[in-house]
Specification:
By secondary structure, this protein is of the alpha+beta class. It is built from 17 helices and eight strands. The structure holds protoporphyrin IX containing FE (HEM). Protoporphyrin IX containing FE (HEM) binds next to helix 5, helix 12 and helix 16. Its cofactor is heme.
């Protein structure tokens, strides 16, 4: 019977006994290899094995909807790893939690602050941070990534903990940044033996060859600091009765009503730390892609600017209230998510039951990966998908075309879809509109006066960001400089 079921796996590259496809699985930019396997085997779903683990990769929106949405009760779990979940403390992160009552409680609490009708409350804060970004770009026109990072991090810490940060050497931003970075370090470090032999977690750090255990302890401290340091500041303000209302104070209001106060407080710590962890790198990566696209496609910059000048004029900056009247800016934002998704394979899902799809057998415990890259570059959905072309989302009259699919796969799938996507879309939209209203984005010049040519090269890993991004923000006019200075002075 087992043999019969094995024959019913979707097609995929041939593997070896015991190790499976260990030696022919891609080492970097795996979304590209999975996309070509899908073409080679003529299937929207492919299968391979890593040791005893079954991996399925889905590369069409139809199959993704069928599995992740229609069968979300089976396809919403996450793989648990000793290094990530137990030794370094990432079990607190909703995005990595197994599909359980604990995940549901965390997601419900987080969602109430980031659902579409809650997000407008953060518009004033986002607007102030975007204005500060414009001023920072005037003063340091070559540091766009640094400015994006500060904008996204500062907005998040303000909304979640009511903590005001400084652009340089802010102790809380440093702690948050370090903690969030260490997840990428763990993922990029590859596989740890302790994940295959969990008993190794009991080996003491001083044991010869257990250097990984010492590294795990360092990571653990950083993850703890990311969770506790900002929370302690917000909690102290709450206890003193002087706190500015924020997500933490709102959650702490529920503490007295909770049956298990310790457990509730732990949930508050996890939920509040989540926005920085899940929202900063994703937003910064996407905005860096915007900059790259603007270097390659100056005509898109010009079209965006023309729309802003026509609708908003030059005497004020675009606001989120202008969204309906600036469809081209919305189309640019969507195209950024589609052209180079920040997480080209989202976060892998895991099945909790045996399943069957189109005659194929998908065993319980399989990893099922949505190949967002392939789905968003599917030529049957998006013509000439390699081109950055916001107009694909517009009708011939220039309004948003409801028949062109939104690149929602950039935010993942089914019940695990990004909870912060409405907030993310607003912060991205406002940044795109404001930056293009007052700046030209140009290639930068090196110390010898030579233009640094932009390249479409991306990093590999959980996140995929433009490599060594260099660009310069040039104010469009003296009036634009004056406008930025006056807006920042006002706010
Ligand atoms: C452009 C920015 C962003 C992108 C591209 C993005 C993308 C994603 C993706 C691909 C996933 C995995 C979905 C899956 O497993 O199928 C995810 C999960 C998540 N995102 Fe985002 N995200 C962004 C911004 C944000 C922001 C700003 C927040 C918070 C304020 C946030 C909070 C979350 C959370 C909490 C999860 C975990 C959901 C779960 O596992 O149940 N994200 N995001």
């Amino acid at each position: 019977r087992i043999q019969k079921r094995k024959d019913r796996f979707p097609p995929g590259p041939p593997g070896l006994p015991v190790v499976g496809n260990l030696f022919n699985s891609p080492k970097g930019h795996s979304w590209l290899a999975y996309q070509s396997w899908s073409t080679l085997y003529g299937s929207d779903i492919i299968h391979f094995k890593l040791f005893s683990n079954h991996v399925f990769v889905v590369s069409s929106s139809t199959v993704a909807k069928e599995l992740f949405e229609k069968r979300s009760n089976i396809y919403s779990d996450r793989h648990q790893k000793v290094m990530v979940h137990e030794l370094t403390g990432w079990d607190r992160n909703l995005a990595l939690m197994s599909y359980s009552e604990r995940w549901r409680t965390h997601r419900r609490h987080f969602h109430q602050y980031f659902r579409p009708d809650a997000v407008p409350a953060y518009h004033p804060c986002i607007t102030t941070e975007v204005h500060k970004l414009l001023a920072a770009a005037l003063d340091a026109p070559n540091d766009c990534i640094k400015h994006f990072r500060y904008m996204a991090g500062s907005a998040t810490l303000n909304i979640v903990y009511a903590i005001e940060t400084q652009p340089e050497d802010d102790p809380i931003l440093i702690v948050a940044e370090r903690g969030a970075q260490c997840l990428s370090e763990i993922v990029n470090a590859g596989s740890f033996l302790v994940d295959s032999v969990p008993a190794l977690k009991y080996v003491p750090g001083w044991f010869p060859g257990a250097g990984w255990k010492k590294q795990a302890a360092v990571w653990r401290e950083q993850v703890d600091a990311l969770h506790f340091r900002p929370f302690e500041i917000a909690k102290a303000a709450y206890d003193s009765g002087n706190a500015k209302p924020c997500i933490t104070t709102s959650l702490l209001d529920g503490l007295n009503k909770s049956a298990d106060k310790k457990e509730y407080e732990q949930m508050v710590i996890n939920v509040t730390a989540l926005a920085y962890q899940a929202g900063t790198d994703t937003t910064v990566t996407s905005l860096t892609t915007l900059v790259l696209a603007m270097l390659f496609y100056p005509e898109v910059q010009a079209a965006a600017r023309a729309e802003i000048d026509r609708v908003v004029g030059c005497d004020r900056l675009p606001e989120l209230g202008d969204k309906e009247s600036l469809p081209y800016i919305t189309a640019v934002t969507k195209e950024v998510l589609r052209w180079h998704p920040a997480l080209p394979l989202a976060v892998p899902h895991r099945t909790i039951e045996d399943d069957e799809y189109q005659g194929y057998f998908i065993p319980k415990g399989s990893l099922v990966i949505g190949n967002t890259w392939a789905i968003l570059r599917d030529p049957s959905r998006y013509a000439n998908p390699e081109m950055f072309n916001p107009s694909r989302f517009l009708t011939s009259e220039g309004t948003l075309d409801p028949d062109v699919p939104d690149p929602t796969e950039g935010f993942g799938y089914g019940r695990r879809i990004c909870v912060g996507r409405h907030f993310a879309m607003d912060i991205m939209w406002l940044t795109v509109a404001n930056v293009l209203a007052v700046f030209e984005i140009n290639e930068s010049v090196d110390a010898f006066g030579r233009v640094v040519k932009a390249r479409e090269e991306y990093t590999t890993g959980l996140f995929s960001a433009p490599k060594d991004m260099k660009a310069t923000f040039k104010p469009r006019s003296a009036a634009a400089v004056k406008l930025i200075r006056s807006v920042v002075a006002e706010s």
